[in-house]
Amino acid sequence: MIGLIVNKKEVEELLYMLKREMDELLFDLKDDRINHIVKRGMEERYELLFSLFKRIAPPTECFMYIRKEKSNTDGNLKNNNLNVDMEL
């Protein structure tokens, strides 16, 4: 476990970088030309970034980035049982 102390400006920068990367992943996950194996890696990365994001972002912003659907390895859609543990 690593502790991190950041000031308000640094938190804003972290939020900006995480949002930008998650937005790009969400956009690419909708692209049918991308191989399903590559998409699986992108989904894993998205989950990691979202877990970091929900630690520092306000709950209202977290709700915008919760994925409702996730593709499996066959390219079909299934529900994503993403647990969101946010402290209010």
Summarize the model shown.
The chain has three helices and two strands; from the N terminus they run αααββ.
Structural description of this entry:
The longest helix is centred in the first third of the chain and has 22 residues, at 8-29. Strands 1-2 form a two-stranded antiparallel ribbon. Helix 1 (8-29) packs antiparallel against helix 2. The chain is mainly alpha-helical. It has helices at 8-29, 36-56, 59-64; strands spanning 69-71, 77-79. Helix content is 56%, strand content 7%. The protein has three helices and two strands. It has a domain at 8-67.
Give the secondary structure arrangement, pairings included.
Elements lengths: L7 H22 L6 H21 L2 H6 L4 E3 L5 E3 L9
Antiparallel strand pairs: 1-2
- How is the main sheet built? 2 strands, antiparallel
Strand content: 5-15%
The low-confidence runs, each spanning 5 or more residues with pLDDT under 50, are 77-81
Overall 3D geometry? elongated
What structural category arises from helix and sheet content?
mainly alpha
Summed over residues and divided by their number, the pLDDT gives a mean of 86
Could you give the count of β-strands?
2
SSE pattern: HHHEE
Helical stretch tally: 3
Straight-line distance between termini:
23 Å
The percentage helix is 55-70%
Rounded to the nearest angstrom, the radius of gyration is 14 Å
Keywords:
88 residues, mainly alpha, 3 helices, elongated
